[in-house]
Specification:
CATH class of the largest domain in chain B: Mainly Alpha
Largest interface: A-B, 34 and 31 residues
Order of helices and strands of chain B: HHHHHHHHHHHHHHHHHHH
Protein name (chain B): Metal ABC transporter permease
Radius of gyration of chain B: 31 Å
Strand content of chain B: under 5%
Radius of gyration of chain A: 19 Å
CATH architecture of chain A: 3-Layer(aba) Sandwich
CATH class of chain A: Alpha Beta
Shape of chain B: elongated
Oligomer: heterodimer
Strand order of the largest sheet of chain A: 1-11-10-4-9-8-7
CATH topology of chain A: Rossmann fold
């Protein structure tokens, strides 16, 4: 696979029982799209994410996998600075995240907003352009054409003028993706993009993401459906408050790692089925 | 007694005209700058901010008198009220961020404490011998009797600035109101944008204190935006519609209160605003209660019609009176419940569509299309004629439904 060598992603690492990785990695890969170093996030005095290192490679689709409450979404939001970090650093293409905002596009969970808000589909997509146009800039014809083009790419061109409250769940998710596309970013962070969407939407989203990957972009998605990990993703990061493992899917998404991540919550026959490379559809 | 017509056309004397113009301008400014407060679902913060102005009024009066000045200097009183209002706002924000208390608890605590302190200070002021303290209590409910040209100028300039700032900040404000996580990911400082929004609201509150008073100003900020929401589906339009509604309510309300000597202006303005709200609540074209009822009725009729036709196709008797009446009025069944030829033809079509949908769900994997099966959507709206021909081919020739 054609991707720059990064110390973490080239070798899967398995954390030992006390949370320390077997192979301690010190370096920050200079050009990794997203490198997380020692990040801890805590709600009150209970860490939701503890001292996590992660490196997500370029031109690749990465999944953040773990059980409910394992800190998947929290890790993503902390990396973006949406919620405060207690400790740790985040680098985007080698720069501190605050300096690289223009290169990041975020797709939040669909359920995180009020869909009765008075706005149209087109208005939502244009929100992806707000940073570019600033306070006073006009959203000119070229910008509008770009936004319309992004709607086209997710198969929602006909819905531009509709009020967002009239959309189905899958359509809402596509609109959020179109808004991220409008940013022309290099790194795409998605929080459960396939949660509660219909099969056609899942297909449409995965096609868009694969196209982005082929253009050299990096995609990182919080993902909950273990049965599709092998079909959709190249790289897996497994977390349960602490990092459990990360690496290419074939190396990191193994029965032992899943057992370590989910504990007794997955039956062992189920585990073998999910993580053996032979079951690829 | 002044006629309402005279008051509306500014013919009811200098003071009444000043009050009407001032109230109209204030209504517009409050409606427009209150929009995002409503959209951000933080309407009640403005109530706490308004109550937090009272200690500032008292303190400013005491300080100005102590320094040997005129205790009732308008700009001094407004500066004082703005200072304590801002303090109250920061305290709400701080309590919400630093403790596990929810915002409503912080609002309640700040509102009560500041208002209490304000009342104590006003009592102290009443016992002071110097400074012509009469009239300070009008900051509670507003007063129009002593309305001066300079008051209207303060409202006009302050209000214009607040509306301009709301328009200028419309993009970040919309973003934070709709999706604050995304705004933060884009690099917007959500906390600062919230403070700017509340600062605008505070500014309008302060300039409106003298006219409507701190207890009712929240109504001017929130009701117009809530009303405007009934008429539009776009946040930028909500700003201007809310401004227009607030301005109208302010102007009409002030004119009405001028028609009788004892009518209080602030409450009448709020009632005028509430009247516009009630009209919108019932009669707005899409979101109004009446429209919702009619939409539900139409939908119910469609369901009954479809169920009735399916019953005819299956040769089941129809028991429901509403379904029978509906089909009778369309000439699809006779009075005794027996289908007419037209009814039979429709029933055949409906039954055939059901069968087509069944085939479609069997052979089509695209859930985006078959997911639109709800028993009501005509199949022609979802599938192409070629696809329907394919379903028909699998179905075989149509069968007639016989009359009983």
């Amino acid at each position: 696979m054609n991707r720059p060598a990064t110390p973490l992603s080239s070798q899967p690492t398995l954390a030992s029982r006390d949370g320390r990785p077997y192979a301690q990695v010190e370096t920050v890969p200079a050009h990794a799209p997203l490198a997380i170093r020692g990040v801890t996030v805590s709600y009150g005095e209970k860490p939701a994410v503890f001292s996590v290192d992660a490196t997500f490679p370029a031109q690749s689709m990465s999944a953040i996998i773990g059980p409910n409450g394992a800190g998947k979404s929290t890790l993503l939001k902390a990396a973006l600075g949406v919620i405060p970090r207690l400790s740790g650093e985040v680098y985007v293409y080698g720069q501190p995240v605050a300096k690289a905002r223009a290169r990041i596009a975020y797709v939040p969970q669909r359920a995180s907003v009020d869909w009765d808000f008075p706005t149209t589909v087109m208005d939502v997509v244009q929100m992806g352009l707000y940073r570019k146009v600033g306070l006073l800039g006009r959203l000119g014809g070229q910008m509008k054409a770009h936004a319309q083009d992004c709607l086209e790419r997710v198969g929602m061109a006909d819905c531009a003028k509709r009020q967002i409250g009239q959309l189905s769940g899958g359509q809402q998710q596509r609109v959020f993706l179109a808004r991220a596309l409008a940013q022309d970013a290099d790194l795409y962070l998605l929080d459960e993009p396939f949660a509660g969407v219909d099969a056609a939407t899942e297909r449409a989203i995965i096609d868009v993401l694969k196209l982005l990957k082929s253009e050299g972009k990096a995609i990182v998605a919080v993902h909950h459906d273990l049965s599709t990990v092998r079909d959709y993703f190249d790289h897996a990061f497994l977390i349960n408050v602490r990092r459990i493992a990360e690496g290419p899917v074939d190396d990191a998404f193994t029965p032992e790692v899943l057992q370590a991540t989910y504990g007794g919550r997955l039956a062992s026959t189920h585990l073998d089925e999910l993580s053996s490379p032979g079951t690829r559809r | 007694m002044t006629s309402f017509f005279d008051a509306v056309t500014l013919q009811a004397g200098y003071n009444a005209a000043l009050v009407a113009i001032g109230a109209g301008l204030l209504g517009f400014a409050a409606g427009a700058s209150g929009t995002f407060l409503f959209l951000r679902k933080r309407a009640l913060v403005s109530d706490a901010v308004a109550h937090a102005t009272l200690p500032g009024v008292g303190l400013a009066f005491i300080m100005m008198v102590a320094l040997g000045g005129d205790g009732r200097n308008l700009l001094g009183l407004l500066a004082g009220s703005a200072a304590t209002a801002w303090l109250g706002l920061l305290m709400i924000e701080w309590i919400t961020r630093r403790t596990r208390l929810a915002e409503d608890a912080a609002i309640g605590a700040v509102l009560g404490v500041f208002f209490g302190v304000g009342i104590v200070l006003l009592t102290v002021v009443q016992t002071m011998s110097a400074g012509r303290q009469a009239g300070l209590e009008s900051f509670l409910l507003g007063a129009t009797a002593g309305m001066l040209r300079e008051d209207v100028i303060v409202i006009a300039i302050g209000g214009a600035l607040a509306v301009f700032a709301t328009w200028l900040m419309r993009r970040p404000l919309t973003l934070v109101s709709f999706d604050s996580e995304y705004a933060a990911a884009l690099g917007y400082d959500v906390r600062r944008i919230d403070l700017i929004m509340m600062g605008l609201v505070m500014a309008v509150t302060v300039i409106g204190l003298k006219l409507v008073g701190l207890i009712l100003i929240v109504a001017l900020l929130i009701i117009p935006a809530v009303t405007a929401r009934f008429w539009t589906e776009r946040s930028t339009h909500v700003i201007w519609i809310a401004g227009a509604l607030g301005g109208t309510a302010g102007y009409i309300g002030a004119a009405m209160s001028a028609t009788a000597p004892a009518l209080p202006t602030g409450p009448i303005i709020v009632l005028a605003s509430a009247a516009l709200f009630v009209i919108s609540l019932f009669f707005a074209p899409r979101r109004g209660v009446l429209a919702a009822i009619l939409r539900h009725r139409r939908f119910q009729a469609r369901v009954h019609r479809r169920q009735g036709l399916l019953a005819l196709a299956a040769r089941h008797p129809i028991h429901e009176a509403f379904t029978l009446r509906l089909l009778q009025s369309e000439g699809l069944v006779r009075r005794d419940g027996v289908p007419t030829p037209a009814g039979l033809a429709q029933a055949v079509k409906v039954a055939r569509d059901e069968s087509r949908w069944k085939i479609a769900r069997e052979i089509h994997q695209d859930a985006g299309l078959t997911g639109r099966y709800d028993g009501l959507t005509p199949i022609e709206e979802v599938f192409t004629p070629d696809e329907i021909a394919e379903f028909d081919h699998r179905l075989g020739p149509p069968r007639a439904v016989e009359a009983k």
